[in-house]
Design brief:
The chain is mainly beta. It contains 3 helices and 29 strands. The protein has a domain of about 140 residues: Peptide-N-glycosidase F, N-terminal domain (Jelly Rolls). β21 and β22 form a beta hairpin.
Length: about 575
């Protein structure tokens, strides 16, 4: 990743006693590792829930050093003592960086061509290194772990006399056997990677027409199909949410290409799905001190966006080659992209007939309104507003032995980015209010009844950036950030609720970044930040954790709030 070290820029159900005890133990352990006064990277995200069975642990790599631009290789071998099926498959990885000067870096782990981790690293300080732990639930990807494969870690890092921070890492996969009398969870029959090649690698999409695509002849007994998408902004697009149309970018001292980005999925050139782009902010982004010790939402461990392509199952079951492609609308050099196609098959069937009966999805048409005024004295003020929306429905069916199965995906997606500017010789001010709202309803009708799964995403981002200059060219950049990731879902069968989930993750941060007349950072002032993570579901699971920091050190840890 190109880092900008100085840039212009629900009340839950009552938990079961045993589950609550395990959660409190986990929280206690995490709190012990994150002490008040610490400047080490601090997290609120919960560990992946682990089953009660004893896992087999497969070490992918241990103690690797990342100090150049060469990928690191390892060999994955399935666990002989736990041949499967597995109740859960969990990746656990640990990273650290020595004290010194270093950029934030992108980190990827691959099994064969398939991505199993995507995130970024923490930046160290001259007198302080950092360490952190991540987990990812890979149970849906079970099929890729049944055979030996080559593995790769991409964590490209430069170490020299200037950039002195050295990265290290280790990773394991935990395979949990199914408990007696327990059925294994449903997982994908096949996982087809969309990556750079047989050993993985992301693909750079430089503009709207750049594609990550494959032409595939798929099995003819697919019942469900999904595409997990990672679209990470890089280089000129790292701060895409601050960008403006090209015709005013010079006047506003901002990046071009507008402030709208969105990943698109097509099948044989026809729009098939949308993957909204989350505005991840990395630990060197905008102001590095904003993210000490609390990083932004998902910064160290991205969540893929899952696109439901099940209405196209009959088309993909026809035994003919089909081209599935990913692109990023308005990409402006560039987005780093990878995906995983998850196929769910009926082993008792040979081939399904059916059809896609409705598809109203179209390419986006953003609406941009500019109101910029330049005064005679050179002062600039005004607004740039960018809006985009989708309201579509895709429906298809397959004919099974039990009768037709019809799946309808209906989505309403709204994007807004409202920017206000005030530019004088002594001050630069850019205020951004952005939000992405996704309302998705997936309806399935089959012999078992009428099933509805409703999922809502809400991703607000507020950024206020003000740079004030002294007469000698030195000054202060004052930034405040308010970043959310909210998701809730509900499933019903024949009108009766069967499950719900709720997830809320919010990070707020403010800082004053001091710089000299040469633009070099000299320190910071008035830093504070906080994060709250809350998650619950209808099984009784509830997790809550909040952190507060000031002057770049942890000041408060609150566990369990709202889980009573």
């Amino acid at each position: 990743m190109l880092n900008s070290r100085f840039s212009k820029f629900a009340t839950a159900f009552v938990s079961f006693a045993s589950l609550l005890a395990l959660l409190m133990l986990s929280l206690t352990t995490m709190a012990a590792a994150q002490q008040i006064g610490s400047e080490n990277t601090a997290f609120v995200e919960p560990p992946v829930p682990h089953p009660n069975t004893t896992p087999c642990v497969v070490t992918l790599y241990s103690g690797l050093t990342f100090n150049d631009y060469s990928p690191r290789s390892f060999t994955y071998t399935p666990p002989a003592a736990c041949p499967g099926p597995w109740a859960k498959v969990i990746l656990e990885a640990n990273f650290s960086i020595t004290q010194g000067i270093q950029y934030d870096r992108t980190a990827n782990i691959w099994i064969g061509p398939t991505n199993i981790y995507f995130g970024t690293t923490a930046e160290p300080q001259p007198g302080l290194g950092r360490s952190w732990h991540i987990e990812r639930d890979l149970t849906d990807y079970t099929s890729i772990f049944t055979i030996p494969q080559a593995g790769t870690v991409d964590l490209f890092n430069i170490v020299n006399s200037t950039y002195t921070g050295v990265l290290h890492g280790s990773a394991n996969i935990l395979f949990y056997p199914v408990a007696p009398n327990q059925l294994p969870p449903r997982s994908a029959s096949q996982v087809i990677a969309f990556s750079g090649g047989p050993t993985g690698g992301t693909v750079a999409l430089n503009n709207t027409t750049s594609l990550l695509e494959q032409t595939l002849t798929l099995p003819t007994n697919i019942t469900d199909v999904y595409l997990d998408v990672f679209a990470q902004s890089q280089s000129s697009d790292e701060f895409w949410y601050t960008c403006v149309p090209n015709d005013v970018s010079s006047e506003l001292f901002s990046c071009g290409g507008t402030a709208f980005r969105e990943a698109e999925v097509t099948i044989d050139g026809t729009p098939a799905g949308v993957s909204p782009v989350y505005p991840w902010i990395y630990t060197g982004g905008i102001d590095p001190y904003l993210w000490i010790p609390i990083p932004g939402v998902q910064t160290m461990n991205f969540r893929p966006y899952r696109v439901n392509l099940t209405p196209f199952a009959a088309l993909l079951d026809d035994g003919q080659p089909h081209t599935i492609a990913l692109s990023v609308f308005n990409a402006d050099s560039y987005f780093s992209v990878t995906g995983s196609l998850l196929l769910y098959q009926d082993a008792q069937a040979t081939q399904f007939s059916g059809a896609v009966t409705e598809n109203t999805l179209a390419v986006p048409v953003p609406n941009i309104t500019e109101n910029i005024h330049t005064a005679q004295n050179g002062n600039v003020s005004g607004t740039v507003n960018t809006l985009s929306s989708h309201n579509f429905q895709i429906s298809g069916y397959i004919n099974t032995a039990a009768g037709p199965v019809t799946t309808t995906v209906a989505q309403n997606i709204g994007f807004t980015n409202l920017q206000q500017f005030r530019i004088t010789a002594a001050e630069y001010q850019q205020d951004i209010t952005q939000n992405t709202i996704v309302h998705s309803i997936v309806t399935t009708n089959n012999a078992g009844g009428h099933f509805v799964n409703t999922v809502n995403h809400n991703w607000p981002l507020k950024l206020n950036i003000t740079v004030t200059y002294n007469s000698d060219g030195s000054g202060v950049q004052t930034t405040s950030s308010n970043q959310y990731f909210e998701q809730d879902s509900e499933a019903t069968r024949n009108g009766v609720a069967t499950s719900f989930t709720l997830l809320q993750n919010r990070v707020t941060a403010t800082d004053g970044l001091e710089f000299n007349s040469s633009g070099q950072i000299t320190g910071n002032e008035n830093q504070s930040s906080g994060q709250r993570f809350f998650q619950s579901n209808s099984t009784g699971y509830c997790y809550s954790r909040s952190l507060q920091a000031a002057a770049n050190a942890l000041t408060a840890i609150i566990n369990g709030e709202g889980c009573k």
